[in-house]
Amino acid sequence: MTINCKGELVDLKTPRVMGILNLTPDSFFDGGKYKGEASILHQVEYMLNHGATFIDMGAYSSRPGAEHVSEDEELKRMVPVIDLILKKFPNTLISVDTFRSKVAEESIEHGAAIINDIAAGNLDDAMFDTVAKHQVPYIMMHMKGTPQSMQKEAVYEDLINDLRFYFSKKIKETTSKKINDIILDPGFGFAKTTGQNYTLLNHLDMFQTFGLPILIGLSRKSMIYKVLESSPKEALNGTTALHTIALLKGANIIRAHDVNEATECVKLVEALKENAL
Which of 97, 144, 270, 274 is buried most deeply by CB count within 10 Å? Predict the structure, then answer.
């Protein structure tokens, strides 16, 4: 449960928080919010000061039905912001949310510490080789199809067993490439109905058998606000409730928009575990 980020060993036995920084104009919750340098740096500073171990940056919106963005545009959005953040906060552990090997490579060369791939290599055959070359931690998520088509593909023989089989194959592929630090993300909201998302959360502990860290991305997603008949803006309380359940079921990294609240959730759940009889 230890990963090597640019020579720094990060212990994930105590869960960590990954703060979300969307660089897209159309993300489902905070799209277009962080445009100028000042707003970006202010948000990064806030997240680091309130408990984020990692900052996850995305320049390609993966919400259902999102507009396709070219590789050049993704790089144009991503690379200058990596430079900006690391100039101001040089010790920041930046995770880059991309399924493209070229974006991954250039981001790592500019100082990114982790690659977070929603497609687990399925959308770019060169991704595994790129990650192996640079020996950075690799988050691989479960998704079927693409962000544009995934919601039509939420069909499974057995959701949990299908995902376990998917990850067993992916783990074999990545370890054969000598990728050392692998993190699993079951992909809440990606090619899954609301009911399937809750089935997945109910059985999250079954993915601990792989012996690898588990990242969960539940923050303000539709599985929360649809049940509550609200909106992403009103989904913070529901997010915290589901974060608590995920932590109790073995999540090691919480990917969240609201870093302070996620950090408090981790602290409370750890206090609960420490004082269990």
Answer: 97
pLDDT score of 28: 44
The pLDDT tens digits for 100-143 are 999 999 999 999 999 999 999 999 999 999 999 999 999 999 99
Listed as own residue / partner, the contacts of 29-37 with beta carbons closer than 8 Å and 24 or more positions apart are: 29/219, 29/220, 29/232, 29/233, 29/257, 30/257, 31/61, 37/84
**Is there a contact between 229 and 244 (Cβ–Cβ < 8 Å)?**
no
Does residue 68 carry a pLDDT above 90?
Answer: no
Told to judge if 255 belongs to the known catalytic residues of this protein, a careful annotator would answer yes
Catalytic residue among 178, 221, 233, 249: 221
**What count of residues does the chain have?**
277
Q: Does the active-site annotation cover 273?
A: no
* Eight-state DSSP code of residue 89: S
Beta carbons of 235 and 198 less than 8 angstroms apart? no
Q: 68: which DSSP letter? A: P
The catalytically annotated residue of 100, 170, 192, 255 is 255
Mean pLDDT lowest among 26-40, 62-76, 227-241: 26-40
* Residues in contact with 54: Cβ distance below 8 Å, sequence separation at least 6, in sequence order: 16, 17, 18, 19, 93, 94, 95, 113, 114, 253
Strands 8-11 and 2-5: antiparallel
Please say whether the beta carbons of 30 and 70 come within 8 A: no
